Amino acid sequence: DIQMTQSPSSLSASVGDRVTITCRASQGIKDHLAWFQQKPGKAPKSLIYAASSLESGVPPRFSGSGYGTYFTLTISSLQPEDFATYFCQQYENYPPTFGQGTRLEMK
Amino acid sequence: VQVVESGGALVQPGGSLRLSCAISGFFFSDYYMDWVRQSPGKGLQWVARTRDKLHGYTTEYAASVKGRFTVSRDDPNNALYLQMTSLNSEDTARYFCVRSGPRGEIGTWNFDNWGQGTLVTVSS
User: Fold this and answer.
1) Buried b (16+ CB within 10 A) or exposed e, A40-57
2) pLDDT (0 to 100) of residue A97
3) Least crowded by CB within 10 Å, which of A14, A69, A75, B10?
4) Chain centroid to CA A100: how far?
5) Span B57-98, pLDDT tens digits
6) What is the least distance, in Å, from the CA of B11 to any CA of chain A?
7) How confident is the model at residue B108 (pLDDT cuts 50, 70, 90)?
């Protein structure tokens, strides 16, 4: 199975900050990488697919980049509603696998 | 798009359970459907997939559930199911029903809409 490793595991930031979360795959996955946001007690929400394609309705302050084994999710200016846990996930090979999550907390 | 799971319960080790997922708001037959589970200890874990009508409704399973779980779909009634047998404590999790749609590159499908999940607890 392809292992997905996110860093950091947790991050404290303030409204207006620019934050970047990284995700590394244990082998090359082209751009078959998605990012999800999850709030406590809620279902994950798709933010980005194909490494950099923004899901319909997702604010443009979210962006993704990367190819192969290294990927990033950037939030350009944090809003109060962005404090949540973020997961990366590969869909290059079966089984689809997820990172362990990055918890974004308010400083 | 609405995806609503049901059927989660407390079940004894070795027991069986069937989860259901009611679908609305999109043409069910055109989409792959997945089950993904989440537990505090193991994070998010993909469980099973059924492909769409065009791809023959073929299925895939995680190694940890293959032979014990069966995913099925009832397209005329817009429903997805997960039959789970020989349950053990490792299966304790919230189970999400997830739609998978085309994701850019032809032939590439991935999760795009998730239900709220249903909780399965395996304990004596």
Assistant:
1) eeebbbbbbbbbbebbee
2) 98
3) A14
4) 11
5) 999 999 999 999 999 999 999 999 999 999 999 999 999 999
6) 22
7) confident
Average pLDDT over residues B20-28: 96
Q: Is residue B5 a contact partner of residue B96, using CB atoms and an 8 Å limit?
A: yes
* Three-class SS state of B77: helix
Residues B120 and B124: their CA atoms lie apart, in Å, by 13
Q: How far apart are CA A10 and CA A22, in angstroms?
A: 12
Q: Are B71 and B79 in contact (CB under 8 A)?
A: no
The label of the residue with tokens 């537990």 reads: B39
Sign of CA dihedral B7, B32, A85, A10: positive
Around A101, how many Cα atoms within 13 Å sit in the side-chain half-sphere?
A: 19
pLDDT at B9: 98
Tokens of B26: 């999109």
Neighbouring C-beta atoms of residue B5, cutoff 10 Å: 24
A26 reaches B (C-beta below 8 A)? no
DSSP state of B16: -
Question: Which residues 62-101 of A have a C-beta within 8 angstroms of B?
Answer: 87, 89, 91, 94-98, 100-101
| Cβ separation B110–A87 shorter than 8 A | no
